[in-house]
Write a structure and sequence with these properties.
35% helix, Arc Repressor Mutant, subunit A, 7-stranded parallel sheet, 3-stranded antiparallel sheet, alpha/beta, Rossmann fold
Length: 259
């Protein structure tokens, strides 16, 4: 579940302090954030449970980098990786959209290719993907771009404004790009602020949650967990995806489409 906006802001502050200092203490955070030590302990327990930090006696430490983690790349660099595979994945995802659907779409280069693949159909796309503004979009598509805090690194909108808008909308379909997908950690992203956006989209979907992931994202774990693997209804990937992964995904009830 997505945390409240107030808790979300505290989590961001805690993670910022961890990034700066490498460790935090309950007493210091309680004083700096003007909340009780019980609240801080609850925040640290939540962040520890979701893999954002390591809980210690009286505080927490930053997670040491691991080889399996994928760090964030500049948005302009993502568009040049596995382009042919991403285009096939995006085109296949576009076939899942029905007339007059309301579609949630998150950030990322594959998400943009999906948007450009929507042709000859009337649909409304709601996205935090700021780069979508410059896309070649079919005139039949109504594009609604969420406002909020702009992140240039990912060219996306995040934060309370975007979240509050999403929580008042329900979609027929949610299309999510991801930085990593694994059975143990689920959908993971390099950006903490993106987690709550993805969670809100999943929670407010009346239809299927469709994940677009080329083979380089499969069995990789990024820094922050957006959702468990069982939140995924459909996975669209390319033929280079390991067969043992697709077989296990199907066994778990996920529809896998390879292109």
């Amino acid at each position: 579940m997505a945390v409240s906006s107030i808790a979300y802001n505290r989590h961001l502050t805690i993670l910022d302090k961890l990034e700066e200092n490498g460790r935090v203490r309950v007493d210091d955070l309680s004083r700096d954030l003007d909340v009780s030590s019980v609240t801080i302990r609850r925040d640290l327990d939540y962040l520890n449970e979701h893999g954002f930090l390591i809980r210690t006696h009286g505080g927490a430490t930053r997670i040491a980098p691991r080889q399996t983690l994928q760090s964030e790349s500049p948005f302009r660099d993502k568009g040049g990786v596995n382009v042919a595979e991403k285009k096939r994945i995006a085109a296949r995802a576009a076939e899942l959209v029905s007339e007059h659907d309301i579609v949630f779409l998150n950030s990322g280069s594959t998400a943009l290719l999906f948007l450009e693949s929507l042709r000859s159909i009337r649909a409304r796309v709601i996205t935090n993907n700021a780069a979508s503004i410059g896309c070649d979009i079919d005139p039949l598509i109504e594009l609604l771009v969420l406002g909020g805090e702009y992140r240039d690194q990912s060219r996306s909108f995040v934060g309370e404004f975007a979240l509050n808008t999403l929580r008042h909308i329900y979609s027929n379909l949610t299309i999510l790009g991801t930085n990593g997908l694994s059975f143990d950690q689920g959908l993971t992203t390099t950006v903490y602020q993106e987690c709550n956006i993805n969670q809100a989209m999943i929670e407010n979907t009346h239809g299927q949650v469709v994940v677009l992931a080329d083979h380089s994202k499969i069995e990789h774990v990024s820094n922050f967990v957006s959702a468990p693997i069982d939140a995924v209804d459909v996975l669209i990937t390319d033929t280079a995806c390991p067969e043992d992964f697709t077989s296990e995904a199907r066994r778990r009830g996920i529809k896998v489409i390879t292109v």
